[in-house]
Amino acid sequence: xxxxxxxxxxxxxxLPTMALAAExxxxxxxxxxxxxxxxxxxxxxxxxxxxxxxxxKIAGNDVKVIVADDQEKPDVARQAAERLVERExxxxxxxxxxTNMVLxxxxxxxxxxxxxxxxxxxxxxxxxxxxxxxxxxxxxxNQTIGRATGMAAKExxxxxxxxxxxxxxxxxxVAAGFKQAFPGAVVKEIYTPPSQQDFAAEITSLKSLDVDGxxxxxxxxxxxxxxxxxxxxxxxxxxxxxxxxxxxxxMLTQVGAEVAGINVVSLWTEQLxxxxxxxxxxxxxxxxxxxxxxxxxxxxxxxxxxxxxLRSNGGKTDMDSLRxxxxxxxxxxxxxxxxxxxxxxxxxxxxxxxxxxxxxxxxYVVKRTLPDLKDDLAEKCPIKD
Length: 385
Description:
Blueprint: E1 6-7, E2 24-30, H1 37-53, E3 63-69, H2 74-86, E4 92-94, H3 99-111, E5 115-118, E6 121-122, E7 135-137, E8 140-141, H4 142-155, E9 160-166, H5 169-181, E10 185-192, H6 200-206, E11 213-217, H7 220-232, E12 240-243, H8 249-252, E13 263-266, H9 275-288, H10 294-312, H11 319-328, E14 338-340, E15 346-358, E16 361-373
Parallel strand pairs: 1-3, 2-3, 2-4, 4-5, 5-7, 6-8, 9-10, 9-11, 11-12, 12-13
Antiparallel strand pairs: 13-15, 14-15, 15-16
Helix pairs in contact: 1-9, 1-10, 2-3, 4-5, 10-11
């Protein structure tokens, strides 16, 4: 295993260096600093581990990975992507945690005829008529995880809900998906800026509403604050539903037992019974001493996908050859069954889980599976091959 560290001038973290016969280069633009730093760390660690579990190489070749910190600023993400494709001449770019960062990075990467592979959010902008041959999403299409959450709310018996969440493009995408799939009434919608930390006024207003459910979308530390404040007023947690970005494994270690009962829709849990996932969870725990998050699971899948794709196409890294191979290659995803729709967005299961107390603390318990979901926008995508 050839190991080294490469830095972009903007970078403040690193992954192991690997390289092809002609050196495969991967640019990893992510939020090394800022509120999403714990998520970025989980993704970097999982990416690192995936390569290690492949024997330190991808398709038998060394790879060089260059990490850049986007600082949760779209202009910095764009600049980092530009430098990666223009100066470092990476073969593909991955890593953004937030939808805004993906949106900022797409143009410079696509203009340079390189692939952008999002291991987390999938902006609806690139799922339908404006789909982009240079963009893959390995995480989720934003509206689709929202739709899964709306479907879950129906199955849980919710009929009238309030909705609260960030006023950002990604959060609005997820909320739109929820409303598409939820057949009941949305009594009130509240959207707040990402900088807001105190929700006392908004939570107080919920008490006067005639609703039997609450949908929410507040990731990272903001979400921790929101859930703690919700618990403080004695809100019935079994009537709350959200997605795993709004209550991931990292956040779960920061909240108290009062969040037990919350319903969380995810595309992965550590209990999934397949060989790839069992190895991932066991080796992640051994390497880092903690339970991986769904973000880590998504990042772990990318080197495995690249390994399968490059083995199938004879190691060709030009955009068209790599794109075709990625789109058609099967690989052992830790999520189980996984494939790409025509727009290069996922077709995958979603899992309706409930947060329950256990001897080791709080954990996600799968209650229902929503199989083989894909986004509704794929049919509008003009990509045919």
